Structure formats: structure tokens, C-alpha cells
């Protein structure tokens, strides 16, 4: 009960402060979808993956930036376990990624190009990317290169294996789980 | 009963510089102003004392808890007030207190009532400085850790803290003495 209250407070306040960034993410993704409205489904899938990845990386960078220094300080000072804080940060990053990708697919749906499988796999890939990207925050350069390689590999896999969507969802879920655990460990030891 | 005990606690900062070692002891309801060698050391010492930083050597005990092993329990006892004034990010004072109450797992209504009463005691201070103190005290800590507080605020802080122990860090002997003198006068 306490844990969920703290998580809701962290996510709610961060989302409220970053509402301009959320709006801009949704707007840019919607604009990209509008430009791709008559493309082939593969092109739209590639676009969703690219813009979803940008949105996910941007969301992770918002956590890293020093714009909300006071919130970061309160989160560290609060009696919250590392894994709870990691979960809250993950929810924040996933919410921004979702905003971008949902806006993208809504625009395509308006032009009759909506594909539920592609939407689900791009969302899963976006979440895994966001969680992986969050780990770059406190990592050295070699780990950052590895994370970049992982993100590219996830995008390529999602693009190539969308027809086998259960496999894509499973791989993205596994990557997201490992990334979230690792992030929680890093926060707990900080 | 000892509430805070730092035993040769040192912290390695980014860049390899070592802050400390610091040693201090503070009993329940007591007040202690400690002078550090620099601004950065004072900040590190305050953060060590409330479990926000982990000591790379030495030990920090708050209550019966080792800050390295049980930082969450330590943070339930100790509340931190930063040197920097509050940023204008929160929509209102009530929203700020609700945020802190949620983080500390305290009922919102209870925290707001307590915070408003604390604000009245901190009436002479600017909001940017009084809000963080009210926010820290409204969750009912046993130890208030202040990072470089202004000596001019000592009277109001001591009056508002009541039975809560106060540990303040300062960048230099003069500041620490000035704060301690003001606080002792209450």
C-alpha cells in the first residue's frame, strides 16, 4: 500500500512536470505518422520502431537530466527501496514512450493503416528500449556501447520477426525484466 | 540514547577525492553543528548522516540501523533539508506536502495539518527556506539533518523542531559557531 502510494507520487509528479515533453513527443510521433500515412506496412513499422526508440531514449534522458534536481533529491531522501524507485522511473519512461507510439498508431488508424500486431510489438520494443536506456545513466562508456547495441538488436529483431509476434513479445519482456532488475540494483547500491 | 553515530565515515566522490573521515555522536533530542573543511564536504557529511550517501569506509548508525545495510530504515528516522532553496516546481504548498507525505507513507491530511502549524512557527523565514523545513518535519522524523543552514534561521528551526534532534553541517568553524550560538539561545 505504502509502496504503491510512493510510486504513484513519484510518477505523477514527474509526469506533471514533464507534460510539455509528453505533448511534444506525441505531436512529433503523430506528425511522423502523418507523413507515412500512405507508406507500405513495412515502412510504417520501421517508422514506428525508429520514432518509438527516439521517444524511449528521450524519456530515459529526462530522468537523467538535471532539470528536476529537487525531485531526484526527494526520491533519494525518501524511505523507498531501490526496486520501488526503479519501478516508478520505469513507469514514467514507459508512459512517455506509450504517448508517442499511441499517437503514431492513432494517426495511422485514422487513415485505415492500423495493424494491431505491429502496434503491440513496437510498444513492447519501446518499453524494453526505455528500460535498457535508463541503465546507461550510471554506466561507463563500454556498458553504454553495449546498451546501444542491444537497443539496435531489439529494433532489428522486432522488424524482422513481427510475424512471429509471441517470440518478439517474449524477448522484449525478458530484456525489459533484466534491465529493470539491473536498474533497481544500481539505485539500491547508490 | 545515541541517535546518530558517525565513526570515521568517509565517502569517495566522483573524481576520486575522499570527503572525510567524519566522526560525530548525537543523542536523542540533542543539537549538533559540525564544521566541515569545504562546502562539498559539508554536503557529503549531511547526506551521509541521513542515509542518502553510502560511506565507502567507516560506519554510520542512525538509531539502531547501519546506513549501509538498512538505508530505508535510516531514512524513516532522519529527514534531510538541503541548502538550496525550494524550486518553484510544485503547484502549491499543499501539493508539495502531499508529495512528501506520499513518499514517506504518512497520511496526507495529517501531514498537511502538521505542516501548516509548522509554517506558522517558521513565519519569519522566506517560503523557499521554510517550505523544505516544514516538509521535512511534517513526516515526524526523530533526526533533522540540515545542510549548511543560515544562522539567522537557527531560532525558528529549533523552535519548530521541538523534541527532534538537529544535526547541521557547515562550511567552516565560524558558520557552525554562529548557528550553534543562535540555536543554543532558544
Plain-language structure description:
The complex is a heterodimer of chains A (190) and B (186). In chain A, 84% of the residues lie in helices and 0% in strands. Chain A has helices spanning 2-17, 19-35, 41-64, 69-77, 82-110, 116-134, 141-160, 165-189. In chain A, α5 (82-110) packs antiparallel against α6 and α6 (116-134) runs parallel beside α8 (165-189). Chain A is globular, with a radius of gyration of 17 Å. Chain A starts with a helix and ends with a helix. Chain B is α/β, with parallel strands linked by helices and 186 residues long. Chain B is built from 7 helices and 8 strands. Chain B has helices at 39-49, 71-77, 93-104, 108-121, 127-137, 154-161, 173-184; strands spanning 2-12, 18-27, 31-35, 57-62, 65-66, 78-81, 143-147, 165-170. Chain B has a 4-stranded antiparallel β-sheet with strand order 2-1-4-5. In chain B, a hairpin with a 5-residue loop joins β1 and β2. The model of chain B has no long low-confidence stretch (mean pLDDT 82). The interface between A and B is medium-sized, with 24 and 23 residues.
Which features does this protein show?
heterodimer; A: 190 residues; mainly alpha; 8 helices; 0% strand; globular; B: 186 residues; alpha/beta; four-stranded antiparallel β-sheet; 26% strand
What is shown here, in short?
The complex is a heterodimer of chains A (190) and B (186). By secondary structure, chain A is an all-alpha fold.
Amino acid at each position: 500500500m505504502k509502496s504503491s502510494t510512493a510510486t504513484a507520487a513519484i510518477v505523477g509528479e514527474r509526469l506533471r512536470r514533464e507534460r510539455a515533453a509528453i505533448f511534444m513527443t506525441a505531436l512529433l510521433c503523430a506528425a511522423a505518422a502523418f507523413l507515412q500515412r500512405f507508406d507500405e506496412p513495412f515502412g510504417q513499422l520501421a517508422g514506428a520502431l525508429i520514432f518509438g526508440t527516439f521517444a524511449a531514449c528521450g524519456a530515459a534522458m529526462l530522468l537523467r537530466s538535471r532539470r528536476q534536481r529537487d525531485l531526484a533529491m526527494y526520491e533519494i531522501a525518501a524511505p523507498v527501496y531501490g526496486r520501488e524507485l526503479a519501478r516508478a522511473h520505469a513507469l514514467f519512461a514507459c508512459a512517455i514512450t506509450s504517448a508517442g507510439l499511441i499517437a503514431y498508431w492513432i494517426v495511422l488508424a485514422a487513415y485505415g493503416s492500423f495493424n494491431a500486431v505491429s502496434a503491440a510489438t513496437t510498444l513492447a520494443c519501446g518499453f524494453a528500449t526505455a528500460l535498457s536506456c535508463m541503465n546507461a545513466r550510471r554506466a561507463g562508456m563500454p556498458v553504454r556501447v553495449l546498451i546501444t547495441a542491444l537497443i539496435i538488436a531489439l529494433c532489428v529483431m522486432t522488424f524482422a520477426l513481427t510475424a512471429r509476434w509471441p517470440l518478439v513479445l517474449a524477448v522484449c519482456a525478458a530484456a525489459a525484466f533484466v534491465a529493470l532488475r539491473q536498474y533497481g540494483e544500481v539505485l539500491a547500491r547508490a | 540514547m545515541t541517535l546518530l553515530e558517525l565513526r570515521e565515515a568517509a565517502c569517495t566522490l566522483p573524481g576520486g577525492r575522499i570527503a572525510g573521515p567524519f566522526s560525530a555522536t548525537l543523542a536523542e533530542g540533542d543539537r549538533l553543528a559540525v564544521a566541515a573543511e569545504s562546502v562539498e564536504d559539508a554536503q557529503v557529511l549531511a547526506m551521509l548522516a541521513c542515509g542518502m550517501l553510502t560511506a565507502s569506509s567507516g560506519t554510520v548508525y542512525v538509531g539502531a540501523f547501519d546506513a549501509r545495510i538498512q538505508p530505508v530504515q535510516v531514512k524513516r528516522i532522519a529527514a534531510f533539508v538541503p541548502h538550496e532553496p525550494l524550486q518553484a516546481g510544485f503547484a502549491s504548498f499543499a501539493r508539495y506536502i502531499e508529495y512528501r507525505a506520499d513518499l514517506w507513507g504518512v497520511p496526507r491530511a495529517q501531514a498537511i495539518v502538521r505542516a501548516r502549524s509548522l509554517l506558522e512557527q517558521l513565519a519569519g523565514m522566506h517560503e523557499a527556506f521554510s517550505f523544505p523545513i516544514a516538509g521535512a518535519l511534517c513526516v515526524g522524523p526523530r533526526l533533522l539533518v540540515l545542510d549548511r543552514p543560515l544562522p539567522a534561521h537557527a531560532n525558528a528551526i529549533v523552535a519548530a523542531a521541538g523534541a527532534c534532534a538537529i544535526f547541521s553541517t557547515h562550511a567552516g568553524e565560524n558558520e557552525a559557531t554562529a548557528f550553534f550560538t543562535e540555536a543554543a539561545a532558544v
